[in-house]
Amino acid sequence: DCVNLGVNSILKTKPDLIVSGINKGGNLGDDIVYSGTVAAAREGTMLGIPSFAISLVAEKDFKFQAAAIFAVRLAEHLLKNKLPKGTFLNINVPNAEIKEPPYRITRQGKRFHGGSIVEKVDPRGEKYYWFGNNNLGFEEIKDSDSHAIAQNCVSITPLCLDLTDYSFL
Questions:
Q1: Helix, strand or coil, per DSSP, at residue 5
Q2: Coil, strand, or helix at residue 103?
Q3: Among candidates 106, 109, 118, which has minimal Cα distance to 140?
Q4: N or C: which terminus of the chain has fewer CB atoms within 10 Å of its end residue's CB?
Q5: Helical H runs in 16-165?
Q6: Are 102 and 65 in contact (CB under 8 A)?
Q7: Widest CA span of the chain, in angstroms?
Q8: Of 142, 144, 108, 116, residue with least CA distance to 33
Q9: Nearest CA to 18 among 5, 31, 27?
Q10: Is residue 3 classed exposed, middle or buried when 0-12, 13-18 and 19+ CB atoms within 10 A define those classes?
């Protein structure tokens, strides 16, 4: 919604590129379905603007330098070399001291699901629910985003707007 509002209401001219992030925490595997960072890049693509989401895979002690360097390099590349229509990129960067880690073109991985839902009470006495993530890990899928991160490589996953299951169709 923020990208749509910005492009269609606030900005005087349409941007040449949408960069969403750097997100604190990875957006790997199935997490992309819930990610606002990835959703912003998807929205930019829906509006016809080349877009990518970038996330730093860490829970604390965030080392943003490698992700920032990679984001700038990728932005420069995408301004010169366009993405196919309907395609956007999901980038995940390992939280390493390496300023320019190697990168891999990857496919979306698959997280093991199983978290808990905890009912809590806010300071006003209202109930709310916290969706826990027990961090059960990822399936071992060669060439997946989580596999690249496990090897301290940047993951570049091309995504598309069309979610149709063509094999079932």
A1: helix
A2: strand
A3: 109
A4: C
A5: 36-46, 65-80, 145-150
A6: no
A7: 54
A8: 108
A9: 5
A10: buried
Residue reference for tokens 């379905």: 33
What tokens were used for 135? 């961090």
Structure tokens that stand for 101 in this block: 């880690």
Tracing tokens 């006003």 back to the chain, one arrives at 124
Cα(166)–Cα(13) distance, integer angstroms: 37
In three-state secondary structure terms, 54 is: strand
The single-letter code of the amino acid at 58 is A
Query: Is 0.85 topped by the overall pTM?
Result: yes
Q: Which residues pair with 129 in a beta bridge?
A: 119
What sign does the CA torsion over 99, 32, 34, 51 have? positive
Strands (E) across 2-160 are located at 18-24, 51-57, 87-94, 103-105, 117-121, 127-131, 154-160
- Residue given tokens 């880690």 in the structure block: 101
Residue-wise pLDDT for 94-114, tens only, equals 998 888 999 999 999 888 766
